[in-house]
Amino acid sequence: MATDPEQSSLSSFGKVGKSSGEIDGVEEPLLNGENSSENYSIAAAILPFLFPALGGLLYGYDIGSTSCATINIESSTFSGISWYNLNSVEIGLITSGSLYGALIGSVLAFNIADFLGRRRELIVAALLYLVGALATALAPDLVIMVIGRFVFGIGIGLAMHAAPMYIAETAPSQIRGRLISLKEFFIVLGMVAGYVIGSLLVDTIDGWRYMYVASTPLALIMGVGMCWLPSSPRWLLLCAIQGKGNMQDLKETAIFCLCRLRGEAIGDTAPAQVEEILTELSFVGEEKEASLGEMFRGKCLKALIIGAGLVLFQQITGQPSVLYYAASIFQSAGFSAASDATRVSILLGLLKLIMTGIAVLVVDRLGRRPLLLGGVSGMVISLFLLGSYYLFLDNAPFVAVAALLLYVGCYQLSFGPIGWLMISEVFPLRLRGRGLSIAVLVNFGANALVTFAFSPLKAWLGAGILFYAFGVIGILSLLFIFFIVPETKGLTLEEIEAKCL
């Protein structure tokens, strides 16, 4: 029987007897019953993933291209402008403008996400990507360029909030983990593309303009694609059950959207599935509209601890900082061809792509917890190796190279894709928009904090002690994962709410 990913647990609702668990004194469904297999068409599932995932690709492209654009824009020969002599603060505004815009986008998402819905939020994100890229590329002065970077960043914040929700709520549960993890693959793919295109244009007059304008076709494709895609049936039914529209009209629209998302494989079962969804949403109390206070108690508090905790540890275990040392580590090891920053970035980007691809292939088979525990353990080992290199082993650069590659590979097996996957799965439906916006805000905020604090901490503690500190934080993150983070492999979104929260 085919069900929507957000709805599939409902297919077993009428098939199970009393369970051992209870919600508010009422027997939980889904805990002892077997999931019915969701019938879906692979062809129909591709586009509902692809267009939202372009938001991640554009985010990654911005990271990669900006690292090259700043080199070009500071060149008196190739910048093509009279204001190329920028100080460190001005360069910082260019490089971090999109990050701070993403923080604002995350705050905006808290209030507008459930009003707009996942699809329209992604359309707005695509529009902001387009406007921001054009403003940056055509900027006559620094002020307009920074504004363009900021606008592009707001698009990042909205896209990174809405894309995992849309994919989670429209993907079949059998491949939900694979598809959401594949979004991380698209982010890394965008980074590699940004590095490659940037390295080709870095010695071109006005090259930075071409780097930024190159993202506009993808923004257009994303916007047009999201206009064509249907809304999330789950969001529509949430609106229906909360009285935000005519129940019958919204049910009919949800049936239509579900048929489009599943393709011909769904047959004539869509109306029955929609009724099951409504039954399940009523059972778990989704008809109550979420309040701000509810974010910090009960099920949502637990989901918030899981989701925000994962993306916080994702950043404070040193992810932005370790890559800062990549070029110097390769250079000290004698890799002269890799001493150029852009070439190092491309090499590491390819490694990230490979490891993310492995995670995508195994996440729905091995599960989330094994990848997190195994990957973060590898990160801890690599951080202590890096610390030891800078304190005791400076005559053994191969140790640093091996540790760097181990860190990057293990991060992409664990925190990289699984962090985004888990925050899209753990929040109850009526709190998902606001809960995920808080988690995304924590992610970008922690990224900005670690990036800002890295240089002062390095000057104060030294690189070796700093990497040891990151290693200790990594051990704390392992304890957090082991004791707090649940396994969601193979569970529908309803089952996660019923069993894990």
Spatial order of the strands in the main sheet? Answer: 1-2
Could you give me the name of the CATH homologous superfamily of the largest domain? MFS general substrate transporter like domains
Shape descriptor? globular
Radius of gyration: 23 Å
Structural class: mainly alpha
- According to DSSP, the number of beta strands is 2
CATH class of the largest domain: Mainly Alpha
The number of domains: 3
The string of secondary-structure elements, in order, is: EEHHHHHHHHHHHHHHHHHHHH
Distance between the termini: 26 Å
Q: Work out the strand percent.
A: under 5%
What is the name of the CATH topology of the largest domain?
A: Growth Hormone, Chain: A
CATH architecture designation of the largest domain? Up-down Bundle
Query: Treating each run of at least 4 consecutive H or I residues as one helix, how many helices?
Result: 20
Q: Mean pLDDT, rounded to whole units?
A: 83
pLDDT < 50 runs, ≥5 residues: 1-36
The percent of residues in helical segments reads: over 70%
Region (Disordered): 1-21
Domain Major facilitator superfamily (MFS) profile: 48-489
Family: Belongs to the major facilitator superfamily. Sugar transporter (TC 2.A.1.1) family.
GO biological process, one term: D-glucose transmembrane transport
